[in-house]
Amino acid sequence: MTRKILMHVGPVTIDYEVLAAGLRGDTGFTSQEFIYAMSYSMKFLRKLMGADQSYQPFIIPGGGTSAMESVTSLLRRGDKVLVVSNGVFGDRWKQIFNRYSVAVDVIKAEPGEYVKPDDVEKAVKEEKYTLVAMTHVETSTGVRAPIAEIAKRIRDKVELIAVDGVSSVGAESVKTKELSIDVYLTASQKAIGVPPGAGLLVLSERAVSRLSDESVAGYYLNLKNWIDVMRNLEDEKGSYFATLPVHLIFMLAKAFELIEKEGLENRIKRHERVAQGIRAGIESMGLDIVAKRPEAYSNTVTAVMVKKVNPAEVLKAVIPEGLELAPGVHPALAGKYFRIGHMGWVNQNDVITTIAVLERVLKRLGEPVNLGEGVRAVQLTFT
Amino acid sequence: MTRKILMHVGPVTIDYEVLAAGLRGDTGFTSQEFIYAMSYSMKFLRKLMGADQSYQPFIIPGGGTSAMESVTSLLRRGDKVLVVSNGVFGDRWKQIFNRYSVAVDVIKAEPGEYVKPDDVEKAVKEEKYTLVAMTHVETSTGVRAPIAEIAKRIRDKVELIAVDGVSSVGAESVKTKELSIDVYLTASQKAIGVPPGAGLLVLSERAVSRLSDESVAGYYLNLKNWIDVMRNLEDEKGSYFATLPVHLIFMLAKAFELIEKEGLENRIKRHERVAQGIRAGIESMGLDIVAKRPEAYSNTVTAVMVKKVNPAEVLKAVIPEGLELAPGVHPALAGKYFRIGHMGWVNQNDVITTIAVLERVLKRLGEPVNLGEGVRAVQLTFT
Amino acid sequence: MTRKILMHVGPVTIDYEVLAAGLRGDTGFTSQEFIYAMSYSMKFLRKLMGADQSYQPFIIPGGGTSAMESVTSLLRRGDKVLVVSNGVFGDRWKQIFNRYSVAVDVIKAEPGEYVKPDDVEKAVKEEKYTLVAMTHVETSTGVRAPIAEIAKRIRDKVELIAVDGVSSVGAESVKTKELSIDVYLTASQKAIGVPPGAGLLVLSERAVSRLSDESVAGYYLNLKNWIDVMRNLEDEKGSYFATLPVHLIFMLAKAFELIEKEGLENRIKRHERVAQGIRAGIESMGLDIVAKRPEAYSNTVTAVMVKKVNPAEVLKAVIPEGLELAPGVHPALAGKYFRIGHMGWVNQNDVITTIAVLERVLKRLGEPVNLGEGVRAVQLTFT
Amino acid sequence: MTRKILMHVGPVTIDYEVLAAGLRGDTGFTSQEFIYAMSYSMKFLRKLMGADQSYQPFIIPGGGTSAMESVTSLLRRGDKVLVVSNGVFGDRWKQIFNRYSVAVDVIKAEPGEYVKPDDVEKAVKEEKYTLVAMTHVETSTGVRAPIAEIAKRIRDKVELIAVDGVSSVGAESVKTKELSIDVYLTASQKAIGVPPGAGLLVLSERAVSRLSDESVAGYYLNLKNWIDVMRNLEDEKGSYFATLPVHLIFMLAKAFELIEKEGLENRIKRHERVAQGIRAGIESMGLDIVAKRPEAYSNTVTAVMVKKVNPAEVLKAVIPEGLELAPGVHPALAGKYFRIGHMGWVNQNDVITTIAVLERVLKRLGEPVNLGEGVRAVQLTFT
């Protein structure tokens, strides 16, 4: 079966209109077309992030992890960082900062839970942190954290707040300016629906003022090296520090154009509806969702606990049915779950297909599933 | 004029067969197709680098600069590094290492020259260096260094030798194994002829044995974090550290397939012939080439000194003629030159076009050019 | 919603691997690549048609109707033709022949029925016909005729038998040689899964021997003008009569390559399974299928009678749900039905999507549909 | 060498922006996008033809020859037709009409010449013709006929005038309305720069009034069967007679959009400049052009007489140099010439490349060519 859908956590199923925008054999980084695509993309990135003109957008090579590491551009030797971790990608903040001469404290939640706002508030009262680093939607468990509430509680107690929005930007409500967050970041291959290859972030003025030669950052991911390039390109002037992913930027600009056409609010609602459909289907099959409470459900990732079958077998068995899903990666739940990514250009038809394939495959592999109940539940949700 | 050629230093004109290989809306990093494309690409990368089975290939997100920075994965606090710099990208080695707790010495050549093997040998005799970092072809001036001779002179006097082959791999003779070089690196958008988005490198066993938690490297560009992923993918097993540029890898694998079909020797000869044509055309117009001696001429980049005109005007004027060239970036020659990139899928027809457009544009802008002499010189070269 | 599926009667949803094969800006009809693609395609066409080396394949510009009209190349002034019509495209045979100086008799079936083999046999016994023209699957009603039985009954009583396989070739069992049929034809945009632009047919030796300047045919669709071109191209020699659709031929060759990889038997089984799923879903919603008996069900087109709603409203309402269906075109059933095409690269997921969208849309528009029953029926079929 | 240019008479080198417009896997002929693309294309076709609202545009499957044959829709049994032939494609008018019950007279010119307006005028004075059929640019010899002058002389003496503009529309001045021509036709793969697959024509009101069931035309190419479809689609209403080449229409609409952006006048001037460059290069090599006088030179095709070498050898030898040319097809000049097509997205760089390759190849094969003189002549032309 050649035609598939990719219900993954990134890359995800990509619209061919986006992919075709990268079909350019003759366009360099000094061309007006590229410069315009960058300028447009940076301007749109602010809107996508709920940021205003006071924020500086960056589009740099790499992905989510490199964008996270670029936050070291704001830190100096000896700074104290608090990491609020709800899973593997929360822990990644810690692993990154541990490579640098900064002190790192971590508050962790159980898998399926998020760290309570109370606990974060308590931590920042007890200790003076330069930076609090959080995760909006934890990709390893599909848990969405109450970023707004936490931000409100800690905003005036810490210098910088950074949010990993890798699995939220473009699919969840993101209010960088309103919450006065200093760094909001994402990656091209997630809810934006472009191939992997770029990290995208916005920096508050406070964050920008911290860029300096004294930061602990290295070279390539040091935002101080990129800021003039970003400003020049936004002003439609050619500029170079290291080569940007030219073809990807054309795809990004096309995706942003399509997002603008759909409307950001509509896009978020679409993700919400799709996520509801996925959960309705999963629950009707009697399976548990890793995220433990409805407030923790995300619009983009649903992690699913299996009962009898091996999740690796599920992932293998859905492939010939035209579906690719994502493996579970949280070590505490190893061998117990798989993930369904539902972001980007995903639609209701993808939900029906996913649940239909899962019903058949899970039943075949031995889960106690009643064929037809999952798809029926989805249909009722979509009415 | 919509159809152009891109005689740039990267990205370069790309064959649409390569671009079309990335047209996949439904393929994730866990898919067999991707895993196979990575496995094939890593195996072919060894051949491209003149490396053997003892070398470990890496294909990581980013480009040339990030690949250079990943060499910090081999260094520990206090290590001494010698940088051999022939221009802007030689200096970049220094700028990178300066962000880390290592000591850096630099030997520099005048623009258009390369550092003499004697001088490198003398330096490594006087001081014990963990690493000597060099540049094969200096992209800012088009100067090719005598890597083989330098390597032979210093091999037994230093622990590690790293070569930036960004503007050489795929277009110049590269003999990593024969010269016992520890790190040879390049980027996807240069002579390999793929869009920008990946750094490619091979590490000797000696280099691999230096990967450790004690290195000065950060996280994303830390090869210790990537090595298991690379080994697993080469063995056709799915693996994840951070998201690889899936679509770009499909293009890379297609480019490697085409390189294999053309034959690496033929490809290098093609670049040689093309470079000869470019130089014949430029010289017949009475213009000087930045590289000062024939031994320093490269197969991939020709930097051209202008006499009367402003090179920025030249770059602007060639665009409506269907040609995009690269600006000069060496600060010592600012405003005095431009660059012609000739790598990847470049052919003799591109040479004729480039020289024809330059003749007309330079004459129009006031250089003393005799129309027809440049293209005639190219024709005589190609007979 | 940008991503759609096209459950139409042609063009149908096309795999991007097929579409990408046409991305060639530089290939003329004299190029070896084109000549090879034609040669390969003609050879494969024989297999697809169940023909052997004694049959002459043709791939000519146009589509199904032009391929039908090219059958006039076999007729001479005054010849008698019998048309066996089960609907709009059966009648099309008559409309075509009526433009020429031949005598045409027609036997017709009610919509949803096919003309009985007995009746055809009787007709050819009563009258001497040069040609009997039939339709394998009538696209207007989705009715499949018992071609094999009819052919066996009439084979020795008529000179030539021509079958319109537009909605069957590639999805139903086609046995041109075994049944000694003289002309079997199809179009690129149907079960072969390529964009519209070519008619494809095979001619028996008997049919080839009828090509002459005395035929009633015109010029462009006169197979006598094409036969040498076809023979030359199959022998990998360049040849020209009128310009062939070069880019489409590259897509056709890629589609044939994918069909060969899937296996023709597997492909037919896939269509069968998909058709069963569609019918199970439709019937579980309490809707009638136009084809009146199971023997008349086709693997490629299901025509669906609505009860209360306007079928034009259904077609309009499914579009924003990411689905495009085909209108009913049989005048006797005007305003009473719509069609679902299920051919080409169609898969089980497309069936679930189609039935899910139809359930919701039909219910919303007022049909008495129980949500979830259609998709459940499909699931049970696919277990 | 993978990257080529196609200096052919159709298909020609196609811009990838045009090709990418056809990358749609999910769009049927009932979709709004298709209907809009058809509507836009028909409206633009009038402008391209120099026609006004009183003309009816048609875009039908096939190409130039099928468009020519569709003119039979205007003829009735016994009508008299005058064919004015300057070569192979002029003769094609005759071959077509000979298949129908109409009387055909032909006036012919020597190869390289065109039939004099005097001679046409004389012919239509001596005999009453329903239709005079001419060729604007004779593709077999590159000869451009003085259509305007002929049309003025004969307009009031014949009922219908049809012009084959296959190698002129989009690249030469076309004044259908001003000259009161009844049928002007072309094909998608010529100066419009789209893959082959459609014939395009406009009909005057007088021509439209001749469409009837009494015409001699067949079925598929009978414009009476298409006219309602064309009118409906122009009015953005879905309509069907036989399947249109959906994907090609998207490419056509994109090409028309690019032509509109370039400006039709600019496009014609570009073709003129390119043709001058080609001729300057050819003449400077001492080779003769088949078109005998400057008034007969066309903007789109240059036929070149060779002296010593075999033209088939030339065509073969240019291929590995990245160039594809067209063979000579005029029987009177068999083995003595080849053709250079220069239409569509052709630019000055293609001219330099073509002449450069030809210089080298012709010299290598034994023509007395001085390397460098051809390209110099082109450069002087382009200053």
What does this structure look like?
The structure is a homotetramer of 383-residue chains. The model of chain A has no long low-confidence stretch (mean pLDDT 97). Chain A folds into two domains: 5-11 and 263-382, Aspartate Aminotransferase, domain 1; 16-261, Type I PLP-dependent aspartate aminotransferase-like (Major domain) (Aspartate Aminotransferase, domain 2). Chain A is globular, with a radius of gyration of 21 Å. Chain A has helices spanning 16-20, 32-48, 64-69, 88-98, 117-126, 147-154, 205-210, 223-234, 246-262, 264-284, 311-318, 348-365, 373-382, and strands at residues 5-7, 56-62, 80-85, 103-108, 131-135, 137-138, 143-144, 160-164, 183-187, 197-203, 288-289, 301-305, 323-327, 337-341. In chain A, 39% of the residues lie in helices and 17% in strands. Chain A is an alpha/beta fold and 383 residues long. In chain A, strands 2-10-9-8-5-3-4 form a seven-stranded mixed beta sheet, with helices on both faces. In chain A, strands 1-13-14-12-11 form a five-stranded mixed beta sheet. Chain A is built from 13 helices and 14 strands. Chains in contact: A-B, A-C, A-D, B-C, B-D, C-D. Chains A, B, C, D: Keywords: Aminotransferase, Pyridoxal phosphate, Transferase. Chains A, B, C, D: Belongs to the class-V pyridoxal-phosphate-dependent aminotransferase family. Chains A, B, C, D: GO terms for molecular function: alanine-glyoxylate transaminase activity; L-serine-pyruvate transaminase activity. Chains A, B, C, D: InterPro entries: Aminotrans_V_dom, Aminotrans_V_PyrdxlP_BS, PyrdxlP-dep_Trfase, PyrdxlP-dep_Trfase_major, PyrdxlP-dep_Trfase_small, SP_NH2Trfase/AEP_transaminase.
